[in-house]
Amino acid sequence: MNLSKHKWHFPVILSVTMNAMKYYLNIFFAVLFVIPVYGQVQTQEELSGKSAYIKGMEAFENEEYESARQLLLEAKRNLPSATGIDYALADTYLQLNDLPNAAIYGKRAVDSEPDNKWFRLKLIRIYRTAGQNEATLRELNTLLDYHPGDFDALYMLADTYKDYGEFVKSNQTLNDILKLRGADPSVLLMKFRNFEALAIPDSAIAQLEKIREADPDNLEMLNLLGEYYVNTGRTEKATETLNDALTRNARDPQSLINLAGIYLDEQKWDSAGTLLTNFISDPLLEAEDKMNIARFLYSRIQNDPQNIQLRVETERVLDSFTETESDYGPAFTLAGQYYVQTTQSEKALENLERANELLPQDEIAWRQRLQLLMSLEKFQETVEIGKKAAESVPEDAFIQFFVGSAYMLLDQNDQAEQWLSNAVRAPARRPFKSVIYSTLGDTRANIGKHEESDEAYELALRYDPENDNAMNNYAYNLSVRGENLERAKELALKAIEVNPENAAYLDTVGWVYFKLEDYDRAQRFIKASIDTGESSAEVFEHMGDVYEKLGDLDKAQDWWEKALEEDSSRTHLQEKIN
C-alpha cells in the first residue's frame, strides 16, 4: 500500500524545540557578551569576538552560511572558551554539508558540556546525516543516560532505529514513550509505519485505531484507515470508517472519493454515481474540490473504457459539474477531453469551445479542440480556430502545427510552410519536433522547394531517428525526383522495418526499386501493398507502370483502369490506357 500521499500534521516537537533553543542561545550569548561582569574590563579580543559572534549569527539566520562560518571562526579565535560558538560552528558546517568539521565542533561542544541536551542532539544529527550509525546510537543512549525518559531523545532513537531497518527496536522505544506520554498520535503513527514495514497488517491497523480513539475528528487518519481496510480485504470496515468520516464532514472530497471507489469496485454503479453527483451539485462546495471528484471518475473510465454503466455515471457527474460551475473553465476542459476519448465529437467541441472562452490561455483545451477538428477533416475551421488560439497562446508548437497541417491539407502550402516554420522554432519535445519537421518537409516538397524539403526531413530524423513517416515520405520524394536513390532505398526499407504492414510504405519501397530498374522487386513490394487492402489509386497506377516495364501491357492496362475507377481525377491515365 502506498501511503506517501498522506501528509500528517502532527507537531514535530524536536525541530520546534531546537529552533527555540537556537533562539535561546542567541539571546544568552548576546546578553553574556554585551553586559560585562561588574568591575571587569573587557579586552579588545573579547569585544572583537563578541562582535564577530553577533554578526555571524545574523549571517546564519539570513542563510549566508559561508559568511557565518568566517565570522564564527573569528569569534572562536578571540573567545576560545565560549562553548556556544562551537555549537554554532557545528550547525554552520552542517548547513554547508561539511560533515567532518561539523562533527569536530559538535564534539567539542559536547565535551565541554556533557549534560547539555541540545549540544548532544546537534552532534547526533551530524552523525546521522553522515551515516555513522553506531556513533548516532551511542550518543543517543548517552543522552538518555543524562536525561532518562526525555521525549526528544527517545523519539529520535526510535526514528533512527526505523531508518536503520530495526523496526522491532524502534517499536520497543516507542512503547517506552507511550508509557510516559500516553496515546501520542505521532508516536502511534511511527508504530503503524514500522508494523507496515514488518508486513504485520493487523498490528498496523491497531495503531491507526488507537490514533482514531485519540483524535476521532482527524479525517486524514480516517481515510488512511479506510484505505488500509480496503487493501486488507475488509470492505465492510472500510465502508464504516469512511461513513464515519463523512458523518464528521459530509463535504470531505477524499472520503467521498474513497467511498465511491469501494462502490465502484463492488460494481455498485448507481450508488457511486449518486454519491458523487450529489457532491458535485452542492453549491456550497469549492469548484477545485469538485474537480478532484471529476478527475477521479475520469481516471477510472480511462482504465475501464468499455464499461457502459461507468460511462453513464461519469457523464452524469461531468454534465452536473459543467451545469453547476458554468464559469469554471477546467470543468469544461476535462469534459471536453472525456467526450473526445469517447468519440462524442459534438459534445466534445461544445465543451472545449466553452473552455476556450473561459480560459483563453489554457493551451490544452485549444490543442484538444484543434486536434478533434483535424480528425473530423474540418480543415478550414481548424485554420480559423487555430488563428484565434495563436492570439491567446502565441508560441505553442502544437497550435502552430495544427494550423500549418490544415493549410497543407487545404493545398495552401505557402501558408502551411509559414506556420510550420514558426512551429519548429517553438519549444517542443524531440519526438514532436521531429513530426513538425517531417510535415514541413512534405509541405516544401509540395511547392518544389526540394533542397529545403530534404533539409527538413534530415532534421526530422535527427530529432527522432525512428520517425518512420519521415523516412517514408523523404524516400518517396527522392524516388519521384529520381535523386539519391540509394539513400531513398535505405530509408524506405527502414520504414517498413518499423511498420511492416503499412500499405503506403510498401508502395514506396516498390517505387524506389522501380526507379532503380529492379522491376521484379518493385512488383513484389507493390503487390504486398495492394494485398493489405488499404492501397490507393496511386498504388494501382504504380502496379500498371511496373507491368508495362515487364512487357505485360494487358495487365498494365487493367491496373491503370482500376486506378482510374478508384480516382476519376487521374485523367492522365486515359492516355496510358489508350
Automatic annotation (TrEMBL):
Domain of life assignment: Bacteria
TPR repeat locations: 219-252, 329-362, 434-467, 537-570
Range of residues in the leader sequence: none
Keywords: Membrane, Repeat, TPR repeat, Transmembrane, Transmembrane helix
Classification via InterPro entries: O-mannosyl-transferase_TMTC, TPR-like_helical_dom_sf, TPR_2, TPR_rpt
SMART domains: TPR (SM00028)
Annotated transmembrane regions: 21-39
Name used for this protein in its record: Tetratricopeptide repeat protein
Native source species: Gracilimonas halophila
Lineage, uppermost ranks: Bacteria, Pseudomonadati, Balneolota, Balneolia, Balneolales
